[in-house]
Amino acid sequence: MSYQMIIVDDEVHAVEGVKADLDLRSLGISRLFTAYNVKQAKEVFDREHIDFMLCDIEMPRGSGLELLEWVRLHHPHTVTVFLTSHADFRYAKEAIRLGSLDYLLKPVLAEELAGVIRRALQVVDQHLEMRLSSQYQQLWMKNQSLIVERFWLDIISHRVMAHPTAIREYADMRNIPITDDMEFLPVLLSVQRWHRDLTGRDEKILEYALMKSAEEMILADHHNGMFFYLDDGRFIGIIAGNKGDQWDLESLTAAFHRAINTFTVTFPAIGGCRFSRI
Predict the structure, then answer these.
(1) Are 14 and 112 in the same domain?
(2) Which residue, 73, 98, 122, sits at the end of a domain?
(3) Helix segments in the chain, DSSP class H
(4) Tens digit of each residue's pLDDT (9 = 90 or more) over 95-154
(5) Which of 93, 177, 216, 248 lies 20 to 30 A from 49 at CA?
(6) CA angle centred on 15, ends 10 and 19, rounded to 5°
(7) Of 208, 211, 157, whose CA–CA distance to 189 is shortest?
(8) What pLDDT is stored for residue 253 in this prediction?
(9) Rounded to whole angstroms, how far apart are CA atoms 122 and 119?
């Protein structure tokens, strides 16, 4: 992996000295940028992706601490190390508070600087891996909900044999977490009629709102499960429980009736709803 780095220091000879000490190729740095004040550094950040910043603290026209605060706000994945002539505990404390990875004093040995840069680039890699992992999980969760929905539709429509072994094999093939100690209660919620004519778009919007409201109101009280659209104002609810537990059908029925009464008030276009066990 290659990285982009910036050195920010108002002393030209300090910048040139660091550049001379660094073996960019061995560090994996493909491009090195320099800036001699905060304004120049921000201009580089605005046009380039910077993985690592090596920065002085005391500079005219803005300090390195102020720059780091700006970088943390606008480019939070950049890793920063301070390289300064000032052995001031207050500076070091503030640098750590702002998220600086390290605080080095000039002059610094080339081997020590290279070691710190390698450590900083490892942190860059870790941050990237975490971001990619998070994005993958979000995509997986989004796709998984569609897979689960398709799984239940296939069972209800008898595209899968209604036998425990067949269902379990089908679930395993799709990485759907179903265990032997789980039971499911399928229910059907349907809109009986609409009070007024609706466009296709308005009807779909109302159906989606109805489905999400059903999930929130019916599944909120100690029930696990999901609702999904079937067809023509009909929704399937899959309510999950543990095998051997007694289903409290009375409270569940009451929850459906409360939800339906709320729907007819909240959504005036709905002429009536009903539910039934499948």
Answers:
(1) yes
(2) 122
(3) 12-21, 24-27, 38-47, 64-74, 89-97, 110-156, 164-173, 200-218, 249-266
(4) 888 888 988 888 889 999 999 999 999 999 888 877 766 665 555 445 567 777 788 888
(5) 93
(6) 165
(7) 211
(8) 81
(9) 5
